[in-house]
Amino acid sequence: MSNTNSRQSTPTGDAQEQPPHLNLHDDEFQLDGDASEQPQFDLEPAEAEADSDDERQGQLYLPENDPEKPEPTPQLELDGMSPPIYLVTLDDGREATFQHANSLLESLEAQNIDVQYQCREGYCGSCRARLLKGDVHYTEEPLAWVDDDEILLCCCIPRGPIQLQLID
Amino acid sequence: MAYTTFNRNEFDTFAQPMFFGEQVNVARYDQQKHKIFENLIEKQLSFFWRPEEVDLTNDRKDFLDLPEHEQHIFVSNLKYQTLLDSVQGRSPNVAFLPVVSLPELETWIETWSFSETIHSRSYTHIVRNIVPNPATIFDDITRNEFITRRAISVTQYYDSFIELSTWHQQLGEGTHVVNGKTIEVSKRELKRRLYLTMMSVNVLEAIRFYVSFACSFAFAERAKMEGNAKIIKLIARDEALHLTGTQHILQIMARGKDDPEFAEIAEECRADAIEIFRDAAQQEKEWAEYLFKDGSMIGLNKDILCQYVEYITNQRIAALGFDPLFETRSNPLPWINSWLNSDNVQVAPQESEISSYLVGAIDSEINTDDLGDFDL
After folding, report:
1. Residues of chain A with C-beta less than 8 angstroms from the C-beta of B341
2. Quick check: A143 and B247 CB within 8 A?
3. In which element (H, E) is residue B357 found?
4. Does B372 fall in a domain?
5. How far is CA A164 from the centre of its chain?
6. Which residues of B touch A121 (CB under 8 A)?
7. Between the CA atoms of B190, B196, B200 and B203, what dihedral angle is there, to the nearest 10 degrees?
8. Residue B152 belongs to a domain with what CATH number?
9. How far is B346 from A50, CA to CA, in rounded Å?
């Protein structure tokens, strides 16, 4: 309780002017005590709202953090090993590397390669791509129709270096 | 081949094609020829929602504040979607169930159709909220020539297949004379009509819905009619799944995976299929013109919507292994993806309008009388 008392102060500096009944509970509540150091919430959002479509796209539906950056505090330790880095090449010569992202789609987006997408959950088929070389692992079974030589980027990760042809 | 509700024959499920094999008897799901349909059923069930979960009270106010030409855009789209879902809530059952041969596909068709009835119910929910008398909107659906014109191309394939399929059930293959009319019934023609019907259903769910989806989301981008957009988002999610369903059916047919005759038919009907896509795109563009006849809305006009129709047509036709029909290559409305992305679908719709939640939860009005017994 001494802790609370030591913070007690009044604008006038004269504690005797306080009505006595307030002192009974002054360790619980002070009408004219210090304002708490931080406001609990902001009326206005800290960041201005996006103006262009590109910014809005980034805000609305791309992952907030860079999926290709490792998490600062990963929950699962890999005994000092980091996930292998696989080279993803496109038939038009563009290149990306896959290491940390949850899906190939996220990884490509993080490296500024635009890919068509809609549901991001494996049922709409918008992110189909042709797999020219290599092999992928599905983290979730895709529902959408994919041809034998095609993959669904939103629910797979590469098993090794791969070559892709984006369909647009 | 008369229809029976419980086929007594014993047969090997795995030897049955999707359509025109043995009629389904036991609704069993332990043996599945095409497991994908089971996966689609489960996904669709996990998507279950009810229109009443979405609060539309703000939409009523928004609607009254919209200028007249924007009210026209909103109401017209609602009418057209009502028509599409009326067709889809009924026709797959009537057309496909009597000829289906796999229990998992039968159940998928029923689950698919059922979810369309939820969409229909949600249009009534929306209409009740925005106008005093819902009949003014619903009665116009069968009268408005811009809607009925498109309704014909939506339903003609269904109707012509159902007609022949009914004769086939009653009379079997061959040439028959009924009421003085000669009717030619052949399995091949029946399969051809089924394939084209499936193609037109695919186009319905792939392209026809998207013009009105785009408008609903464009309203919501301006924070107008947000409750409606929330419902449309749930509908769009379901439609994407139904589209996947018809794409699977069409691809299994085209590859002759369980009935080689369908592969031949798909090859024969390539030109017809492309024509179905081209017609739909053209009609949707004309619809866009009708929508914006009295003025555009902020963020959307006729030209950009037509480009979107071309873009989405290219995407959908490519998914079936055809060449793109139009030049448009990039999405002219990139913001729409955020509305079509399932991550953004609210799991608990009642919590979605958080701002109004706070307004209702905290009484922010203070009267000086409230401070009357304060004593400092």
Report:
1. 61, 117-120
2. no
3. helix B354-361
4. no
5. 26
6. 342-343
7. 150
8. 1.10.620.20
9. 21
Closest CA to B312 of B232, B212, B195, B194: B212
Residues 6+ apart with CB under 8 A from B39: A141, A143
A-B CB pairs within 8 A amount to 71
Write out the two tokens for A3: 């802790």
Task: Please write the tens of the pLDDT for every residue from A111-139.
Answer: 999 888 888 889 999 999 999 999 999 99
Q: How far is B267 from chain A (nearest CA, A)?
A: 18
Q: How many residues in total does chain B contain?
A: 376
Q: Is residue B333 part of a domain?
A: yes
Interface of B with A (CB under 8 A): 36, 39-40, 43, 237, 240-241, 243-244, 247-248, 251, 315, 318-319, 321, 329-331, 334-335, 337-338, 340-344, 375-376
Domain span including residue B215: 44-349
CA dihedral sign of residues B104, B22, B171, B153: positive
3-state secondary structure of A130: strand
Per DSSP, the residues of A16-74 read GGS-HHHHHTTTT--TTSPPPSS-S--SS-SSPPP-SHHHHHHHHHS-SS-TTSPPSS-
Domain membership of residue B113 (yes or no) is yes
Per the structure, how many domains does chain B have? 1
Asked if residue B17 belongs to a domain, the reply is no
3-state secondary structure of B355: helix
Name the token pair of A150.
């095609």
Using alpha carbons, list the distances in angstroms from residue B120 to B95, B228, B297. Answer: 19, 13, 26
Task: Give the phi and the psi of residue B117 in degrees, each rounded to 5.
Answer: -70, -30
Q: Three-state SS for A88?
A: strand
Distance of alpha carbon B198 from alpha carbon B282, whole angstroms: 19
Provide the pairing of β-strand A150-152 with A136-138.
unpaired
- Quote the Cα angle for A133-A139-A144, to 5°: 80
Distance CA B14, CA B268 (A): 27
Each residue's pLDDT, cut to its tens digit, for chain B (376 residues) gives 688 889 999 999 899 999 999 999 999 999 999 999 999 999 999 999 999 888 899 999 999 999 999 999 999 999 999 999 999 999 999 999 999 999 999 999 999 999 999 999 999 999 999 999 999 999 999 999 999 888 898 899 999 999 999 999 999 999 999 999 999 999 999 999 999 999 999 999 999 999 999 999 999 999 999 999 999 999 999 999 999 999 999 999 999 988 999 999 999 999 999 999 999 999 999 999 999 999 999 889 999 999 999 999 999 999 999 999 999 888 999 889 888 886 655 555 444 444 334 344 455 667 778 778 877 7
Both tokens assigned to A100: 């940390």
Domains of chain A, earliest start first: 1-36 (no CATH), 86-166 (3.10.20.30)
The model's pTM: 0.81
